[in-house]
Every structure is written in C-alpha cells, then in structure tokens.
Amino acid sequence: MPGASGRVLVVDDSQVIRQLIRVNLELDGFEVMTAADGAQCLEAVHAFRPDVITLDLAMPRLDGLRTVDRLRLDPRTLAIPLVVVSASAGACAGGVDAVLAKPFEPAELVGLVRTLCAEGRPASRTLAP
Length: 129
Fold this sequence. Notes:
about 130 residues; alpha/beta; globular
C-alpha cells in the first residue's frame, strides 16, 4: 500500500539516481516525490510534508549544503531527518542525520530511510559504501 511506510522527498540532479531511489522506496511501500535540485526541494517540501528527505550535495541552482542550511533554519522543516546520498559525502556538514556514499546498495538506503521514518531524527551517523 503506497505511503504506508512514510513519505520521502528524493532530491538529486541525476534523473537516473532519482528513479533508482524512487523505485526502491516505492517497492517498500513509501510514497515518493522527487526534485532535481535544492530550489525544487524547498518549493515542494511544505506541500508534500515528507517524513525523510534524501539529498545529493552537488546540484545546480541550490546545492545540497545550502539546502540543508535552509531546511534547518525553517522551524517547519527542522525536525525532518535528512540523508545525504552523494559521491562527495565527505564534504558534509552539520544538520544531516545520515550520510550514504555513492555508489550505494539500494537495500541499505531503504533500510536507513525506514529507520528514520520510524525513529525520527537520531544523532548523526555516517555509512560507507
């Protein structure tokens, strides 16, 4: 049943990565919306109200780090868990709840998103490929 596991906003400038993440999350019962960059994320987040956001760092218009900063400054999005999914994950700063380096195993991402949906914002953690 779509949406039974939670709602996830997937933000990545690569259409292939967005589709890969979307399909795997939907197969696990998540309702998924996608955005191609941080600006689209900020436009969509209030209407979609996700339980978790997955976010690339290197994107046009508004990159991942600036998007994290804006999401953490807004009281309406402060409590949403953020997962950075990026090849440049080592450049990640505060405000992120988990990091998953590309390339990644889809099952690992789904499990991480499932945990964050169930538990909310944990202490920051890092996962390697």
